[in-house]
Each structure stands twice: as structure tokens, then as C-alpha cells.
């Protein structure tokens, strides 16, 4: 039982990160905390894809290494996703700065009230 749980511990951590990130994006009213939740969610997704691509006893896909080989495609996709995630975070933080300049707060409930009054 412990060995099975130990083998799947990475899946548990990935789903825990996804759950925490989802909770932060839904429950928190501060926009910066929502962006942090989005990054935690992304990290969970990245970890999940890396865990899926793991092959026990496999070697890197080099001509000199003996088989079986690890599939490099998930790793490349995750590297691309990390770059996209950093760009998305930068754009989101830029928008948050602009929203703060316009409304003077980062609380979504206050922003909603102010925008309905206008």
C-alpha cells in the first residue's frame, strides 16, 4: 500500500496544486491573489504532464544511450507552456496595475460596484 502511494505521490502533489490554484482563483477577491492562484494552477498542470511522461529506467533520447527512451515531446511542450505562462502573468500584472490606477483598488467586489455606478 505504501509503495503504491509512494509511486503516485507526484500525481497527488499535482492535483493538490491544481486544487489550491483553482480555490485561489475562485475564492479570493484580490486580483493579485487570483494571478498567484493561476500560476499555482499552471504549476500543477506542468507537474502533471511531466509525471505522465516519466518512464522508469528509461534514458534520454540520444543515439549513444541504450533504450528504452524517454519521450521528449511532453518536456518540450512544458517548456513552451512555461514561456507562455510567464508572458500571461506579465500581461495580467500589467492589466492589474492599470485597473488599480483606474479604480484605486484591487478588490473585485469594489471594482464591480464602482463600474455599475458609472
The averaged pLDDT comes out at 90
Main beta sheet strand tally, sense and closure = none
Which oligomeric state applies?
A: single chain
- How many β-strand stretches? 0
Contiguous runs where pLDDT drops below 50 for at least 5 residues: none
| Helical content band | over 70%
CA distance, first residue to last residue: 60 Å
Radius of gyration (Å): 20 Å
Structural class: mainly alpha
Number of helices: 5
Report the sheet-strand fraction: under 5%
Question: What string, H for helix and E for strand, traces the elements in order?
Answer: HHHHH
* Dominant shape: elongated
Written account of the structure:
- With 118 residues, the protein is mostly helical.
- The protein has 5 helices and no strands.
- It starts with a helix and ends with a helix.
- The relative contact order is 0.12.
- The model has no long low-confidence stretch (mean pLDDT 90).
Amino acid at each position: 500500500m505504501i509503495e503504491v502511494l509512494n509511486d503516485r505521490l507526484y500525481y497527488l502533489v499535482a492535483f493538490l496544486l491544481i486544487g489550491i490554484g483553482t480555490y485561489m482563483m475562485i475564492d479570493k477577491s484580490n486580483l493579485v491573489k487570483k494571478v498567484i492562484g493561476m500560476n499555482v494552477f499552471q504549476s500543477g498542470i506542468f507537474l502533471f504532464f511531466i509525471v505522465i511522461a516519466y518512464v522508469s529506467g528509461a534514458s534520454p533520447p540520444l543515439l549513444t544511450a541504450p533504450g528504452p527512451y524517454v519521450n521528449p515531446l511532453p518536456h518540450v511542450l512544458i517548456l513552451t507552456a512555461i514561456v507562455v505562462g510567464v508572458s500571461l502573468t506579465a500581461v495580467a500584472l500589467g492589466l492589474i496595475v492599470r485597473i488599480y490606477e483606474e479604480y484605486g483598488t484591487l478588490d473585485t467586489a469594489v471594482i464591480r460596484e464602482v463600474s455599475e455606478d458609472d
